[in-house]
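Box S2. Input/output pair 1.
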Amino acid sequence: MTEQRYQAVLAVISEGATITETAARFGVSRKTMHAWLRRYEDEGLAGLADRSHRPLRVPHQMPAPVEIEIARVRRAHPSWGPRRLVYELGQLGVEPVPSESGVYRALLRLGLIDPGARRPRDRKWKRWERGAAMELWQMDVVGGFLLADGRRAKALTGIDDHSRFCVSAYLMLRESARNVADGLELALGRYGLPGQILTDNGKVFTGRFNQPPVEMLFDRILREAGVEHLLTQPRSPTTTGKVERFHRSLRAEFRTDRVFPTLAAAQAELDAWVETYNTTRPHQGIGMVPPVTRFQSDAPVLPVPIRPTVSGSVRPGEERRDGVWVARRASGIGVVCVSWQQIALGRAAAGKNLDVWVTAEVVQVWDGDVLLRTVLRQSSGEVRNKRASIPGRRQG
């Protein structure tokens, strides 16, 4: 190419050919011929050598200080994507604030992101959201908290559907109905009663699909508090997508892959992280504002007792002749059976000796002087007294 340009220049200078003729002869434009002549006059033969076509100045190129700041923040927080990085750069006062696509390209150049790891969004998913806080909570159980003694803890998690506010992050060593109920009571006592709670069909949440169906402690607390318990369809994890997405943030940002010295220490660290998540950390799903800005609840905080004493209920005395007392021991899941009729009391009653007052119309189950449940009698015929009962006496 250098020799060809040199011949074109000599044709004009030595042979006296015109610019137009020479350009047509060598298949270039008149503008290119003028450029070759100018470069030859300024630099001689060296000026006809190949040159880079890269522009000397790119007005839209990201400034080096901004790119360095992107790399610093990304390395400190590997889970943050372009949208979060743009938000944080704005908070840090970086000028000019780059676009999300610009940050993504910078991450590619710096080797801080794997383009093949991007998951294509399933367009079949339909996003939905309740219109106000405290209308619906999504709750689930997540594991993976390793303790120094080798045991693994799990957490009862809960997210307000409208605000994404975390209402529960309660650690427990065993995923039992009693522990899950304790976490639920803590959340209800702290934030009040939502209209509905959505969970999957786990056995710690519901016994509706057991054979026979039973009322689990979680179900009972919600029933007594007047909160509707919604269940997902089988094999439908996206229904509780908000709490599942919270689990993803929990693993990445709280770092559940480390070892915690004790359960109490893990709970203290988790509480501090949840406080930041609720009040400081911007949430992409709600316009890059912290969940607390959406979580406005005027609902009164009401106590939710597991076994409230029924006001005005008086244990039937020996003078009553319209019914009989029988004794029953609740099963391991809190169920008693009277004349082939099963009565679910919840795990709190599991294994207890209880007194049952049976009339022609109703069945009442008593724990000492506390009325646990009254149901309509659905069977008829003789009621067997399996164990001797003593009316008026609490049985242990």
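Box S3. Input/output pair 2.
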Amino acid sequence: MKVAIPLKSADGLEADVLGSFERAPYFAVVEKSGDEVKVNLFENPSSSPSELAQVLLSYGVKGVLYSEAKPLVKSAFEQLGIEVLEGEFKTLKEAIYSLF
């Protein structure tokens, strides 16, 4: 499953994870295939949650990581078939280890 994670910067595995996508300048799309984990970093082009959902769907994302998703945000993602995963992590590396 491809999971998107909001990031403060594009500093690779040491990038700080943000609590939500609304103000995240970057996001990572992480995918595990067998024993291999692929990580791609992207600049966040969206200006609204609905636009973000469409961008993530275009990348094949099936899950998003939030520290605490607001009910409306969670509902909007779930209606589009994107699972909302919750957890708090300091770095992208920590988030990846917890997911896989």
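Caption for Box S3: Residues 2-99 form a domain with the Nucleotidyltransferase; domain 5 fold (CATH 3.30.420.130). The first strand starts at residue 2 and ends at 7.
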